[in-house]
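debug: dumping io for the single-chain case to check the tokenizer round-trip. Nothing else runs in this session.
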Amino acid sequence: MSYEAADPRNALFSGERIRSCSVYEEGTLMLSCVGRLKRLLPPPEEAAGAVDWNVVEESLGVRLPSDYKEFTEVYGGGTILDYFILCLMVPNVGGSIEWWEEEMWNLRHFPDEIPRGYVIDQGSVNLLPWALTIDGDFCYLWMEPRQEPDRWWVVTRTRDMDWSVFEGSMVEFLEEVVAGRRRELWMPRDFPGEEPWFKTTAQYLAERHPE
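debug: decoded output
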């Protein structure tokens, strides 16, 4: 089941969009959207570290949103409650591109289930996967307008091809979900709970495959 997607090139983008992700004023403190998320979802004790984004973006053939980059350098890849898995385009860019292509290949098996506005044809794809659940639900960045990544919205789908649109960035989406203000069809009733936590990919794999 699917429904027609809202077009990002509508009146909401007819003027200059002011992103709530940029800053948040609390007294004299100015927080980025990642800074706000950190208050809700404690990051790893050691930051993931700097990334050579020029190399990553050249490999992908597209620029990435600024909050995506900030999140990656603070949190890195990992899971929320061992259910929601964030698969970012670093550090194995080649493997990430293969995963991206594989997911688009999977979607091409269901052309009638893809809402209008989402492009999955080779050479013109406008969906960039960034997370999935252990049940096979996906989150994408909707790369429209393609040359303005800080204006991309989040698109999600269930494994049964029910689609939804979040009119904001990746980190804005995470902030709303973790705060309990955003529900998706694919979310378990108790997700994310009162005390959500983040676990790095290294921690997750170490627990799943102890030496």
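debug: round-trip ok. The helical segments are 33-40, 53-60, 66-74, 93-107, 170-178, 201-208.
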